Amino acid sequence: MKGILEIMDTFSKDDESRFISYLKEKNQRGDVKNMTLFKMLLKGNTSEIDQKLYGKSAKNALHALSKRLYDAMVDFTATKSFAGETSEELEILKLLLAGRIFFEHEKNKIAFKVIEKAQKKAMTLDAYAILAEIYYTKIQFSHLNPKNNLTEIIDQANSNLVHFQKEQRLNMAYARIKDQQLNQKGTFIGSIIENVFQEFNIEIDGQLSYKSLYQITIIATTAATLQSDYHKLKHFLDRVQQILEEKKNTADKNLYYKIQLLNLLAYSSFRNRDFKRTRLLITTLEEELQKGYADQFSEKVFLLKGLVANFTGCPNEAISILDPQKENSLEAMLALAMCLFQQQKKEQAYTIIKKMHHTDGWYIKKAGIMWVLKKNLMELLLLIDLDKLDIFILKLNRFKRNYGSVLKDLKEDRVLIFISLITRYYENPKQVTTNAFKAEMEHMFNWKAHEEEDIYVMSFYAWLKAKMERRDVYEVTLELANA
Q1: Are 244 and 262 in contact (CB under 8 A)?
Q2: Residue 113: which of 87, 138, 83 has the closest Cα?
Q3: Closest to 344 (Cα-Cα) out of 479, 474, 481, 477
Q4: Does 251 have pLDDT greater than 70?
Q5: Integer Cα distance of 175 and 231 in angstroms
Q6: Range of the domain at 149
Q7: Superkingdom of this entry's organism (predicted)?
Q8: Helix/strand/coil percent split, the chain, to 5
């Protein structure tokens, strides 16, 4: 069962629907229990499954069924359509294999034609590893074609080898960055990237492929999310965007990674409260999506549009953008709850939070630890505003127990301080309006410069500041976000 759940973590919403259709086609005997089991697991039902499926204890039957479902999921994953560059690389590998088979059957003329076609396709994709295999094959069988210029083929192979070795260094650097990120928690990710690139003699420049840029950027932005600090990455992200601008006239052979990069840059700009830049990047992203992958990335675009609208004084527009997305995206669901909360529509916001009925562990796998922390914090604030004392105390104690050490590891002690302050507000609302409370809060918090502060950190603080100053929370939020 564990293997099934791990594979399910890799499935998108679209994959889940397609897999159910795949099972319908695969089921020859009308046996739909594999489909029933899959749907149960999707809903988080993992206890007493045999009783629910067979109406009695049937461990052996469940084991056999689980094995069939696991094998079907592996087969589906292996055979489903590959996205972007991967599918094109697969086509090249098929051509290469076909060419070798033709050589074995002494169909040399056809073999050379197929290999040439594979080479042209591989060169357009900068698929250096596959090109190495293609040149190896051409050299191996060059004696079968008198028209071949062996010296020219060898020169091409050596030139490709230089690019391939650079790609290998990038791959090793990527692995080293990931390793150091795990073993040097709290270290600024930009410093790690810079040191590792120096070690492997790599420069962040236009010679990097879209895929390489994306790999490094996703590491950097993931770390920035965990540290709630996108400001320190600004110089690095500016350089990535500059490289994208320099490469904008190149062929769209890496559209998938280009779109991924634009999405990361747009979201990073939002976290840094550069809304003008975010809008420009969203426009560019939408233009690129017209070329492909619109289905995969439309939810992310809607999320960005909704967030920018909310923090630039257009809350109704934000809600109208995010509401249709709440069933498809956990990020959109939480963002919608936040917008409703800021508009004093607390019952509606709380209704959304209550619909998040899975365990925190399930949500961590699906959306990440920072999403779970934001969800829990928002729930606590809603419980205070809705005066649900018993539930608030229960949730508060659970939050401290489950996430106290996690927040310390992330160096997010400010969250624990914030929790203590909102608890005091709940116990005695009047005290937060006093000068003594304000002075104490200023002393307790490790404040960053305003331009460095993360937008989500500001959003939570805006709630407390609004209570202190007896003002509207959304008004205070906009004031802080756009200062």
Answers
A1: yes
A2: 138
A3: 474
A4: no
A5: 24
A6: 85-183
A7: Bacteria
A8: 80, 0, 20
